[in-house]
Specification:
Elements lengths: L2 H14 L2 H26 L5 H16 L1
Helix pairs in contact: 2-3
């Protein structure tokens, strides 16, 4: 399957889902991206505790909204 056909199939599958199913996927992707960002923060700040990592993550998220 080529990339264009795969994309069309993915879109078809999303269209067949309920709103709740699509929302669940979006929330899962958001949580996954936050976890990836947390790992990056931990690598940049190896001495940061969990609260500091969350503070830095929130700061990054706020910067994306500006």
């Amino acid at each position: 399957m080529n990339p264009e056909a795969a994309l069309e199939k993915q879109i078809e599958l999303y269209r067949s889902m309920t709103v709740e199913q699509r929302l669940a996927i979006a929330l899962d992707l958001h949580e996954f991206s936050c976890n990836v960002a947390r790992e990056g923060i931990r690598r940049q700040h190896p001495n940061a505790d969990a609260a500091e990592v969350e503070r830095l993550l929130r700061r990054r998220l706020e910067l994306t909204r500006q």
